[in-house]
């Protein structure tokens, strides 16, 4: 996916998390499951299958991973790589891709297709919220969003006085 040329946009890189589960294509499902608890992850929606140069080859949602017989090799059960974005792609395009392809996280790759990380589900929700508020501002005629205007739109309401 090509980046939109705008220097004032928020990008995939700003939402990128890098501690995600990866595995090699020839690994067995059981070996991948066994090492999951050993590491702390920033996002845990799927295992991303990479080659020896860390290029994205496919993925396996955790729900499928845990339902698969432990002796199976990842190459036998993985899904093809999901659509991915480059780090400089506008955040709106990242969310659009997630919605169109029903992704809970969007992989971010370098020019050589090396997996850099993902934009996780929580970030996708935050982006959707922020874009919604920006659209409301535009509809209301607010041209320049200030921190106080954003806070007024995004903050929960104050509790009523007793």
From TrEMBL:
It comes from the Bacteria. Pfam families: CBS. GO terms for molecular function: magnesium ion transmembrane transporter activity. Residues 78-134 form the CBS domain. InterPro entries: CBS_dom, CBS_dom_sf, MgtE_transporter. Gene3D superfamilies: CBS-domain. Coiled coil: none annotated. GO terms for cellular component: membrane. The keyword Cytoplasm does not apply. Keywords: CBS domain. PANTHER family: MAGNESIUM TRANSPORTER MGTE (PTHR43773). This is CBS domain-containing protein. It comes from Candidatus Manganitrophus noduliformans.
């Amino acid at each position: 996916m090509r980046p939109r040329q705008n220097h004032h946009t928020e990008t995939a890189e700003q939402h990128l998390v890098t501690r995600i589960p990866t595995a090699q294509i020839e690994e067995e499902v059981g070996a991948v499951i066994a090492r999951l608890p050993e590491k702390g992850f920033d996002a845990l929606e799927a295992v991303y299958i990479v080659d020896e140069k860390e290029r994205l080859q496919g993925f396996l949602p955790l729900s499928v991973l845990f339902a698969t017989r432990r002796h199976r090799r990842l190459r036998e059960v993985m899904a093809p790589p999901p659509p991915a974005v480059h780090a400089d792609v506008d955040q709106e395009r990242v969310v659009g891709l997630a919605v169109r392809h029903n992704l809970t996280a969007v992989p971010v790759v370098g020019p050589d297709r090396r997996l850099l990380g993902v934009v996780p589900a929580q970030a996708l929700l935050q982006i959707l919220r922020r874009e919604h508020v920006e659209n409301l501002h535009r509809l209301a005629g607010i041209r320049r969003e200030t921190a106080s205007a954003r806070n007024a739109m995004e903050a929960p309401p104050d509790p009523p006085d007793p």
